[in-house]
Structure formats: C-alpha cells, structure tokens
Amino acid sequence: MLLELLKEALPEGEMLPKSFYEMKKIIGELGLKYNKIDACPNDCMLYWKETINEQSCAICGTSRWKMVEHQSDDEGSSFAKDRKIPTKILRHFPLKPRLQRLFMSSKTASSMKWHEVGRTDDGILRHPSDSPAWKTFDHNHPSFSSDGRNVRLGLAADGFNPFRTMSIAHSTWPVILIPYNLPPWMCMKQPNLMLSLLIPGPYGPGNDIDVYMQPLIDELKELWEVGADTYDASSNETFRLRAALLWTINDFPAYANLSGWSTKGRLACPCCNKDTSSKWLIHGRKFCYMGHRRFLEHDHKFRTDSRSFDGTEEFGEALTPLFGSDVLVQLQGINVTFGKKTVGSHGHKRRREDNEEERYNWKKKSIFFDLPYWKHNLLRHNLDVMHIEKNICDNVLATLLNIAGKTKDSVKARLNLQHMAGEAKIARPVQYRWYPIERYLLTLKSYVRNRSRPEGSITEGYLAKECLTFYSRYLHGTETWFNRPIRNDDYGNTVREEQSSIFPLVGRALGKSEDCVLDNVTFVQAHRYVLEHMNVVKRMNRHARPRDIERIHNDTFYKWFSDRVEQLRHERNEQVSEDLRWLARGPSMARRYKGFIVNGFRFHTKDCVKKRKTQHSGVVVTTKTSSFASANDRNPIAGDVTYYGVLTDIIELEYCGQHLSDEPFVFASQAEQVFYVQDLIEKDWHVVVMTKPRDLFEMHGQESADDVDTFLGMSPCDDQCLEDPSDDTVSWERTDVDGTTIVLYLPPTQPMVEEQIDDTELSNPIGDDILYNN
After folding, report:
1. 733 is in which domain, residue-wise?
2. With 90 as the cut, is the pLDDT of residue 182 above it?
C-alpha cells in the first residue's frame, strides 16, 4: 500500500517497484539477500550440494520435514497441507557480494586500502596491521599481500537468547565477520560488521558447529584460491579480490567449539595443551590450574618461593604456542561423527577414537584447517578480552577479598590470564577483539518482532539495516545511518550564525536553561577569567613576586580593560569591533545549565548525578604556571600543572546576544573528564581514572614544521621551558623583556631562526599576546 501511494505521488516514468516482492527482487540483484539451507535437527548434516534433495538425515535417519497436523475445511472434510516445512533452517549471507560492495562505493573503497596507504608505520600499535600476526601472514603469502585491497577478516561467534532475557532456554548463534582493512574509526562500527551465518536454536550447536560452518568455509576457500572480480570506485578499475581469515574471537566455551580442544577437565588450557599443570581440589571438587611461575624469568624470586604458592619450587620452562602443523600431528587418528543423540530414537552418538599413546584433550579436528593457510597462521583463536577482564576482576579480586559467592570461576580466570599477555603480543590492539561483538548481539535482539520465528525476524531486520547502510553511502548532504553524528557531538566543526568574532562558540548545552543572578564578586571573577590581562601586569611590574602580580591583576583588570577599549574607540582604532565594546561592558545576562557536551565529553553537574550510578561530573584542567617562579614561592613549578575537581555549576555568560559557555573560572574548551573511584581501604580517598572522548583515535601523521605547535598541543605564545635544543625535539623559549631574543628551535631539517624583537613590537592595543612566526 505504501508503494502504491508513493507511485501516485511521483511523476510519470518513475521506476518504483509495484509490490514488496518486486522490491525484494531488486535488492537481491544487488547482493542484499540470503540463502536458506535446511539442516538436520540433530546437527548431523546440511541438505546442501549433493544432499540437497535428500528427505531424511543420512546419519541419524531423522526426517527433514516437520510433521503437519491435518486440518478440516468448511465442509468438515480432512485434508493435509501441501507445503513441506523444514525442521531446521540455516541462514547463510553470501560473503562475496558484501565484500564487493565495500569497493563499489567511493566512501568506503579508499578506506579499504587504509592499512597500506593511510597507516602511519611508526612502531605504535593502533591497528591489527601493526601486529606480528598480520606481518607474519604477509611474509608467508607475498602474492596475497602484494595487493593492499585484499581483505583480512576476523570471525566472531557466540550464542545469545533472542528474547531479551538472561535465560539459556533458547540459544541462537550468529557468525560475524569483521573486515580489518578499514581504519580504526570504521573497523568495529556496526554498519561494517557482516553477519555471515545465523545458526538457529533453540539449542546451541556445540562441537557440531562445524556442520554449519561449511558454506562459509567454502566461500573463504574460493576467495583465497580463485578470488572475485571487483570494481574499485576509488581507482576506477576492476581487480581480482581475495580474502583471508586471520583468527576467530570467542569466549572460553565457544573457543572449545571452534578450535576442537576441550576447555574442561585436567587439560583445559588450549595454549599449554598436554603440558597443562592442573591439580584436583578434593574439597572444592574442581581442578586448579597451576604452573604460572614457569612463564617468569629464570632468576625471578617467585620461582623459589614455595611458601607463598603451592609448596613447591618452579623450575619449568615457559611453553611456546603450538603451530598449526603441530596440532595436525596431534589430531592424527581422531575421527568424529557429528550429530546429537535424541531421546527415544536411534540417532548416533558422537564417536571419537583417541590416540592411546598421548592423552590429549582434542574432541575434533576444526573445520578451519580446510583453509589452505590456516595451519601457518601465527594466532588462530583469540579469547574475547572482555570476558577475561570480567572474570579476572570479579573472581580473582573476590577471591583475595574472600567475598562469598564470587569465587566459583576464579581458578579458570587465572588460567585465562596466563596467556592473555601472549595473545596481546601477537594480535596486538585488544579493541579489535573486544566488546563490540557483545553490543552487536543486543542490536540483533532488537530485530525480533515475531517471538515464534526469532531467527527469521533477525534475518529480515538485518537485511533492512543493511539496505539502509548501502543506500546511505550514495546520499549526500543529509544525515543517514552511515554518517550520523557521534553521540557526544559538540558541533565543533559547525559555524553558527551567532558565533562571536572574538571567541568561537564551543560545545552545546544539555537541557533547559534557567536565569541566574551572580553576586558582585562572582560576576567580576567570571568576567575577568574570560579575558587575559596578566601579560600587561607582568611587563609593568617586572620585579614583583608572582603573588603580587596576581593581586594587581585581580584588582585592576576590570576597570583597565573598560577604559582601554573606550580610549581606543575615541581614537577610532580599527581593532575595536562592536563585539569588543560589548565585551568591555561586561556580561548582560547569565544562565545556568545542568549538562554540557564539549571536547567529546558529556558533563553533568554534581547535583544532577548524585542519585545516578553513572559519573559525569569529574573534571581535570591543565594550567601553565609562570616560568619565573622561584623556590620561595608557594607553587614553584614552571610548566603544566594538573588540577582535579568536580563540576558544580555550568554558567553561560551573554555579552550583548553573544553566548560564551564556560564553567566558573574554567573555559569549557579547557575541561576534560575524569572518573573518581573510591578507595576500598581509605574510604575518604578516591582514585583518579583518566578517560578519553568517544570516537577519538590518536593517528599521528607526518606533520610539517607549520603544524609542529598543534602537534605538541601548545600555543606559540605560551611560556615554555622545554628540553635542550641539541636533541631532535622541538623547543620554544620566550622572554618578554626589552632587548631579549625569541628563539624558535625547529626540527634538524630546518635552520634555527633568531629574530631581534624591539620592545615597541611587544605592545598590543588590547594587551594580548602576539603570535610570532619564524
């Protein structure tokens, strides 16, 4: 009905589809579709390829179809439905067209080559391309790495209840692929996460997950060996696209399902393998995993400290991770038949023939070894760092503090901790193997509209969102799913009509404002902070102590500035604008807010968050102290000083219609956010936790000499006392005294510049600093 209404509103010649069915055909031709593959309800096999026409399972004999009850027509005669309903359906989302679409759009095609052409290779770890696993893969497969457009993928799989409850009565398993070619600010965003498989519930596949992974593995093999012809919109050419899987990302139970190594029992550690050090706790009735000290240096004191540990000294060697070829040797002789035994049927039970010579913990050979390159990967399976951190924080600390009910999994948490550092060294930045997958599961839950068909609802919801993302890449000048603003957008790149010619507007207020009346002292202090009068006082009182200069500044600024601007106005000085005149008269109105967004942070006042569990009122401000402070002064530090506090008020000062939003005595642009965590022992003390804004990525490029001050985060007119100029660092030294020299030390590629400055050049009509260039 909506399509028909839109067709009537459009002019003649429009090509809008007439029905929902025609619309589905159009988006299907663009690759926005999925395939339904019937599966055995006991997870034995897929009705796929050569078995696509089979009517029952070749392993357990279970029928492919559901039993449909007979229904009666209006006359009372019985009849059966003519339609066959599969008992279980796997949804497969083809990977090839989804990778091709990333290169078809000019907005993403260039980003898919960022790891090669846009990455700064300076030794800092910001992206998986900086990791040894990535570089080892490129070294082993030079033909693949010769073209930066070839895609590296990560695979994440986990089970979740689609009904927004914590019950495990229903478990649906999505398999998600992550294209690591994208830059950090795009890589882990939900529009770029690709759903590859949706394994239906209500029961999780367990070790039979390899049965459902077959369509994806076939695609990956084809993309590795053959590739796919793909159009690159950024270079306007067609190339042969190839793809490879670097690793999987799972929690500990799913690690066992995908790797084939059981993470339970005496040999639970997949990294230590058969050399796992374990001990059965008689009273606790569980295994305790030891051997942590063998990873320390040979001369470490903990190795011989038997009293603090399990009563033994440790002389063992640190274990090295197994290579894929070693795993294949251990897997020889292990044969597995997939499928689950059903109650009251003759279904087959999982069978495994173990190698009697070695006691390993393998349950199966992982299907990933069907990929030609998998055995050469430096790291094949990753532990989800989020779950490891949660287990360690909740369980290990709870064990130390002897908190009841929190120690059940503490031993296994320590087992995970042994190898977390090793994986971090190989795969590097943990944010690419972390919680975005868990957040994405919540998004998939939100697609469920029909509780009797949760997997079908998720599939249709995912396709609808995928269509919106695809179309938004071709829309310009409007907000879309692809280019929507960040959550804490402070409008920093937007020029607003009411912006002052003197001070730019920064940030945006939250909520409604309320008028407030400032007392005389607060009014003068707030207005004084908006302007800079200190440099004039310094030049007029060169031999005064810093505390005396501060006192003179407080007492004389307000009247001096008003008189100075009025004098220049009578002299018809062009530098005195209308905004400056109103600024000299002082604020005409003050407003109060409860929240403010600036610098990527979301702030709320202390009173606003006192009843909340979240914390947004911590503030940190860095100020610069005078470079001529002496040892007798109260604060003799020359340089940056950090002050911590709590936001109590947000005041907006209005100067003749021009708004300057700032906290009392602190500019909004100066404020950054911190969190205060209460000390567990000293209840009156809090620990400061620094944080960074959302969507902030420190990607330092190759800066030029003109950008050197911006790179260092300082203004050229600030007083600085940096390192000796003989090294390679950038230094800045300034002294505002008659007849002195301003010296600017640039990088060694440029000569040092010295310029003699006359005292008359230091005078400014309004007493502000002058920006000196080399």
Report:
1. 705-762
2. yes
